[in-house]
Amino acid sequence: MTSTIDSKTMDRRRFLLTALGGGTALALSGVAALRLLGSGGHEAMAAAPAAGTASQVLLECFADDDGHHLGPCYVPKLVLTDAQWHQRLSDAAFDVMRRAGTEMAFSGPHEKPNSKGLYRCAGCDTALFDGATQFDSGTGWPSFWQPIAKKNVIESTDNSFGMVRTAVSCAGCDSHLGHVFDDGPPPTGLRYCMNSVAMRFVAYRVS
Fold this sequence. Notes:
By secondary structure, the protein is an alpha+beta fold. It has helices at residues 30-39, 82-88, 91-99; strands at residues 14-18, 25-29, 56-62, 69-76, 117-121, 127-130, 134-135, 143-144, 153-158, 165-170, 176-181, 191-194, 199-203. The protein starts with 13 loop residues before the first strand and ends with a strand.
């Protein structure tokens, strides 16, 4: 099952880039801004949040077309009510992302893709994993040996079910993604075990 995102709510992903000369704030939707920056061949500049703006989080941004690193950018933290999350996500995605549930093994669509690309958060579009770091763990869940950028994910201790695990959440919206374990392959030895419904795969448009 894949998550569904209401296109009318997509414009929340707006980040402010402060012009170096005049200090004018340019507000663009997250995806549109990434494409604009990517098309110009320039890396994103991290601009300090303006006074009085919504809570901002500093992430690393990546272009959809070829996955190149655009640099750091401040993005408004996505905060929604449960009703709004239900509108944005499928029931399965809501259970995983907002209730820290786990999808059934081998039930998701994100086995090793045949094309190059990156994985974005199904809730807020934050870049999470590069497909090049994905491997077949045999567990039935998409597995990666590292995130696309450390600051794009949040790791915290999970003591549920009588176990001590490290939970992984999206830094852009605090949605639960999965867990990380220390039984992965080189070079990190880590296995980021993610839920398919918490992500969407974006195939690169250029080789």
